[in-house]
Design goal:
The complex is a heterodimer of chains A (253) and B (265). Chain A has eleven helices and two strands; from the N terminus they run ααααααββααααα. Chain A has a two-stranded antiparallel ribbon. In chain A, a hairpin with a 5-residue loop joins strand 1 and strand 2. The termini of chain A are far apart. The relative contact order of chain A is 0.14. By secondary structure, chain B is mostly helical. In chain B, a hairpin with a 2-residue loop joins strand 1 and strand 2. In chain B, helix 3 crosses helix 6, helix 3 packs antiparallel against helix 9 and helix 3 packs parallel to helix 10. The longest helix of chain B is centred in the N-terminal third of the chain and has 43 residues. The chains are: A mainly alpha (253), B mainly alpha (265). At the A-B interface, helix 5, helix 6, helix 9 and helix 11 of A face helix 1, helix 2, helix 4, helix 5 and helix 8 of B.
Chain lengths: 253, 265
């Protein structure tokens, strides 16, 4: 893939190396593959953990509205624990602490490995971490639907479920979009912490590349630029969705 | 919180809330006792390590203070620039803010670590820049993007009439900001600033990845000296608890102030 990506030949390459632009990911097949794999893993980590965090967020927001005090307390405790401890400590706690209790299995290469590897734990921890923030955001966007709107729906004779599905839900969804966009950006940024448990995502891949090819200054710019482009792209996409879903006369909360 | 409001409105429920609370406390005590019997040896060991571990946590606190100082200074300047009447300056400040907000903190720490030399030539002297200081600045720089938004929000929360009244008194823009707008905005800026301090202090643990000897590195070193698998879970729970004990009261106070001050307006 490196040759296909960079067909311009040796002259340009030499010129770049001479000027300190030792972009090995463009011509070294090993580095190129590492980088692309890292990018893919970052995307996979981010999307899987966002899905998990949304599931946690919806469940948590529903449970938070529960009438049972212990259920509310349990949700609040979960949110507090995950918001007030370092993400890195959470990674270590789950990967090294709980992960060491898991049974060993044999993988395709015939090696003894833990049931859940670094990638699996990273998805779980990132999901739990941003799920804690998602609960608050979703709850706030449900609460932001005006009371009078719910009363009007009740007056029309809609059932509880109908009110949620056809009135509160769609409005709350629109309210939650800015916060969702923000939390997606946060999650993409947070995936870099999976570096600590040796998941070969973008940061880890770049770290390996610059340790092997001695091109720290260039690779670190590429790494930063890749994250900025990724997050910028997702934010632009979310803004477009927001505009598309915007209802005339209704301001986002 | 919620049980208080319920019990004040409906006294009949107070009995149930009391029993729930008692059951909760008992369950927690039972859990603690079970954990202690299950992990007696590791817990005793961790208690023996505590003085050394807490000494390394001091470094986390110092790094957090350096980082919030960097973020406060840089972010305030950026936030004020975002509200500047010069369109170009405001746009530039907004773009820098966005860039800082979108940069992963770990990458920012790498950036500072690798691209700032360990000795800097200042006033004819070589100043040694230690790793922990670089890591702290590496956290403070992206955090200033958040601070910039806090300051912008604070300035925007002050009604325009305040600006008009102040300029009618003959104050220039700088004076208005310093003597009229920012002092009033302080109230709405303090709670999010405290939350930012919490986030920044939590993130100082990232320095662990780069070998700065803060709490988590110290734990790992202790573990390396005493490699027993049954130590792993309690030791990593320990960092969790230390950070939580330090951060939770601050974040709770921040939320209480936010609620209190937003009700008054």
């Amino acid at each position: 893939m490196s040759a296909a990506l960079f067909p311009a030949g040796a002259a340009v390459r030499e010129w770049m190396v001479e000027h300190g632009l030792n972009l090995t990911i463009l011509w070294d097949p090993v580095d190129g593959r590492r980088f692309m794999l890292g990018l893919l893993l970052t995307l996979a980590l981010a999307s899987l953990s966002i899905v998990l965090s949304l599931a946690i967020g919806v469940a948590g927001a529903a449970l938070k509205g529960s009438r049972l005090a212990p259920v509310q307390k349990a949700v609040a405790a979960y949110v507090e624990v995950f918001r007030n401890t370092p993400l890195l400590a959470q990674m270590y706690f789950f990967f090294f602490g709980i992960g060491s209790l898991l049974p060993m299995v044999v993988n395709e290469q015939g090696e003894q490995v833990r049931l859940l590897g670094g990638f699996g734990w990273a998805v779980i921890v990132l999901g739990l971490h941003s799920g804690a923030f998602q609960i608050e955001a979703l709850r706030a966007s449900i609460d932001a639907v005006p009371r009078s709107t719910v009363e009007a729906a009740q007056a029309l004779g809609l059932s509880q479920l109908q009110i949620f599905r056809q009135v509160v839900g769609p409005l709350a969804l629109r309210n939650s979009l800015p916060a969702l966009s923000n939390s997606i950006a946060q999650t993409i940024k947070a995936t870099s912490v999976a570096f600590a448990i040796a998941v070969p995502e973008l940061t880890y891949a770049c770290n390996r590349i610059w340790s092997d090819s001695f091109n720290v200054p260039v690779m670190i710019q590429i790494l930063l630029a890749t994250y900025l482009l990724l997050i910028g792209g997702v934010s632009a996409l979310m803004r477009a969705i927001e505009r598309r879903l915007q209802m005339p006369g209704v301001q986002a909360a | 919180m919620s049980t208080h409001t319920i019990s004040s409105h409906r006294p009949a429920v107070a009995g149930a809330a009391f029993w729930w609370r008692l059951a909760g406390v008992l369950a927690l005590l039972a859990l603690a006792a079970w954990i202690y019997t299950r992990y007696k040896e590791p817990i005793d060991l961790l208690i023996a390590w505590t003085p050394g571990l807490l000494a390394s946590f001091v470094l986390n606190i110092v790094m957090g203070l350096v980082a919030i100082a960097v973020a406060t200074v840089g972010g305030t300047a950026l936030g004020i620039a975002q509200c500047s009447p010069h369109r170009r300056r405001a746009t530039l400040a907004r773009q820098v803010t966005l860039l800082l907000r979108n940069a992963p903190w770990l990458v920012a720490v790498f950036y500072l670590m690798y691209l700032v030399p360990y000795e800097i030539h200042v006033f004819g002297k070589y100043v040694f820049v230690s790793d922990w200081l670089k890591a702290a600045i590496g956290i403070g720089v992206p955090a200033s993007g958040y601070m910039s938004e806090i300051v912008r929000g604070g300035i925007r929360s002050i009604p325009l009439q305040q600006w008009e009244a102040a300029s009618a008194l003959g104050l220039d823009r700088r004076q208005i900001l310093r003597k009229v707008v920012l002092p009033q905005a302080l109230r709405s800026m303090t709670p999010p600033w405290m939350s930012l301090y919490c986030i920044v202090t939590l993130s100082t643990s990232l320095a662990n990845i780069l070998g700065v000897e803060e709490l988590m590195t110290s734990i790992s070193l202790h573990l390396a000296g005493d490699p027993r698998p049954e130590l792993l879970l309690p030791a990593h729970a320990y960092t969790f608890i230390v950070f939580f004990i330090y951060i939770y009261p601050i974040s709770r106070l921040s939320r209480r102030l936010e609620k209190k001050w937003s009700l008054k307006e």
